[in-house]
Amino acid sequence: MNQTLLVELLTEELPPKALAKLGEAFSAGMLSALKARNFVDADAGATSYATPRRLAVSITSVRAASPDRSIREKVLPVSVALDAQGNPTAPLQKKLAALASATGGKPIELAALERAQDGKTESFFHTYTAPGSSLVAGLQAALEETIGKLPIPKLMSYQRPDGTTVQFVRPVHKLMALHGASVVPITALGLQADRVTLGHRFLSRGDLRIADAESYAATLAEGKVIASFSVRKEKIRAALKEQAGDDSILMPEALLDEVTALVEWPAVYTCNFESQFLSVPQECLILTMQTNQKYFALTDKSGRLRSRFLIVSNIATDQPRHIIEGNERVVRPRLSDAKFFFEQDQKKRLEDRIPGLASVVYHNKLGTQGERSLRVRTLASLIALASGSDAHGEALAQRAASLAKTDLLTDMVGEFPELQGIMGTYYARHDGEPEEVALAISEHYQPRFAGDALPVTATGATVAMADKLEILVGIWGIGLQPTGDRDPFALRRHALGVLRMLIEKRLPLSLQQLLSDASQLFAGNANFKDPIADVTSFLHDRLRGLLRERGFQPNEIEAVVAQQPDRLDNIVERLEAVRAFAALPEAEALAAANKRITNILKKAEGQVGMVRPALLHEDAEKALNAGMARLAPQVEAAFVAGDFTGTLKALSVLRDDVDRFFNDVMVMAEDPALRANRIALLSALHGMMNRVADISRLAA
Predict the structure, then answer these.
(1) Measuring CA to CA, how many Å separate 48 from each of 9, 45, 262, 457?
(2) Residue 447 in contact with residue 497, Cβ under 8 Å?
(3) Which residues of 666-684 are buried (b: 16+ CB within 10 A; e: fewer)?
(4) Is residue 572 part of a domain?
């Protein structure tokens, strides 16, 4: 009979940051293992439960026994099974005896075997019915398999009361396994399955007996436990929003997940801290509340931090005064530390911290942060000039690059590394630095993650570009490029940051010049090998992915990226032009012709010269040459004006001339002079057609 199955491991407090993942893995693993053993249908679903003290899963419509299966097993090739006279060989007799033993002991006769083709070989096959297994055996195996595959951050070894040593993420105290209302007598981690669990550690008393698998969540709720991680999380989210009222609540999903993993019966309370702490940059206060205390900060409608904050407690009570006062008392020293760090840091200017960077190792093969700071400053100066900045803009970029890493030496960033750049901006303002320099200190880290904002100021973008190119080229140059899923220096993120700034900021910069300038920074470093070719390829690969995310098709992207564009400020316009050209009725024929021309030119490499009109004999080649001559000024003017769509669309008038040329003219003529002239004509046409993109990539 099919019934709901419930399996629970009752544990000591599980690691909160891993709980959601453990709960999902336990649920998915049990479902997959039971499907593999044919105890549930392919479309069966599971409900995951995860609290600080338990991992559980409920699976509907689980069979009490797996069905019998018909198995067709290859025995031996006929050439091995029979001798020359057609009699059974010793290997066949041995194989049949083994099969008989495995399938119940009944002798298997040769006549009972099926003789059939197995690829190019004729073989004997034995078909038999394998009886299904009981849920006890199947669940035992499924649970052991699932436990063995859980993504446990670190195993803990502990002893059971009988002295046996067990390993799991945390000690397990009870095991529950119910199929409907019946206990499934399995064992795991030194425990025998039962129907007993525990409710909330403080709000519930005694054991909870679960009548049947269907009543698991409801019975736990009576014991003040919300078993479902997702239900508990949404309850917390709603309660936080209600308590926040008209204020905005800072509610990162990671923090919400962690708090959900710390409570079984959540209650939200409002606390306060002294307003004197609001003189500290709010990022510091928010971070210390979120990181150290797991509290939720509130801001007013203008984004200013409030002295009111919210906590999520594991105890619901009508008299929460002691809980509130306890949390207010705990947070006060943390905020005092932040205030102290901030005040102490401001006693020393960022400029005075620059020499200290020489004592901070950046990488043992690339020197110190001081040396890196000089490289970034040099590169920022070159980028500023190449971007069209005047002397003042270049000076701002140099100043910002010099100060960009100095806040790494402050007490606040030492305590909260996540604030690097942010604190530098505050301290630069305190020191009286130009606002653009102050902003650039934080902006040069942008974009910090996928979808993050780009720097707003020109100085910030310049230093951000220099910083990312320096680490990209430097780390790659010492052989630490990304491999597979490993990218410890976040070079993929830095590459995307460079690409996004070039494209979205429309920076008129040569990619090859940027990489060359960055590579020159490491001249004389014996550990460094020029990585420009590899980094260029890496950037183009990232560019393809970035453009796909923006909705362009692979053939459109290849038409542009295959030309290895050196400037990216106009790449979107090029792609849009390719898309518009591809919609023209002439596009398919011209793309196919271009592909044909490309192949011809590859074979004639090194033989291409100038077109000599006197050698144009055929009417078709004369017409094509004349059409190209008429069109050239229009194509050139459109291209120079940045009208890439107009450049490509203008080519459509050549379709008939191109078709006629290939129909009437023998390109590879016997006369070397004629052949060379026709190849030269095709080369000129190829250049005209591919000014914007390689349209041969559009050919089917």
Answers:
(1) 12, 10, 17, 48
(2) yes
(3) ebebeeeebbbbbbbbbbb
(4) no
Mark 85-112 as b/e (b = at least 16 C-beta within 10 Å).
Answer: eeebeeebeebbeebeeebeeeebebee
**What is the residue type of 530?**
D
For the chain, the domain total comes to 5
User: What's the pLDDT score for residue 280?
Assistant: 96
Give the DSSP H or E segment for 177: strand 172-179
Q: What does the DSSP 8-state code read for residue 364? A: T
Is 244 in the same domain as 206? no
DSSP readout, 47-109? EEEEETTEEEEEEEEE-SBPPPEEEEEEEEEHHHHB-TTSPBPHHHHHHHHHHHHHTTS----
Residue with tokens 């050919």: 699
How many other CB atoms are found less than 10 A from the CB of residue 286? 18
Going through 181-327 in order, the beta strands assigned E by DSSP cover: 182-183, 187-188, 191-192, 196-198, 207-209, 248-249, 267-272, 296-299, 305-313
Token representation of residue 374: 């000089």
The pLDDT-based confidence of 548 (bands split at 50, 70, 90) is very high
pLDDT given at position 325 = 97
Range of the domain at 7: 3-65+134-222
Pair 377, 303 in one domain:
no
Quote the pTM value. Answer: 0.81
Please say whether the beta carbons of 204 and 224 come within 8 A. yes
H or E, element range at 629: helix 619-640
Query: Tokens 């962690």 appear where?
Result: 258
Looking at the fold, whether 17 and 91 belong to one and the same domain comes out as no
With a cut of 80, say whether residue 102 has pLDDT above it: no
Query: 3-class secondary structure for 487-509?
Result: CCCCHHHHHHHHHHHHHHCCCCC
Question: Which CATH number fits the domain that encloses residue 623?
Answer: 1.10.730
Query: CA 147, 149, 154, 157 torsion: positive or negative?
Result: positive
Of 130, 159, 179, at which residue does a domain stop? Answer: 130
Residue 80 belongs to some domain of the structure: yes
Note whether 269 and 320 are within 8 A (CB): yes
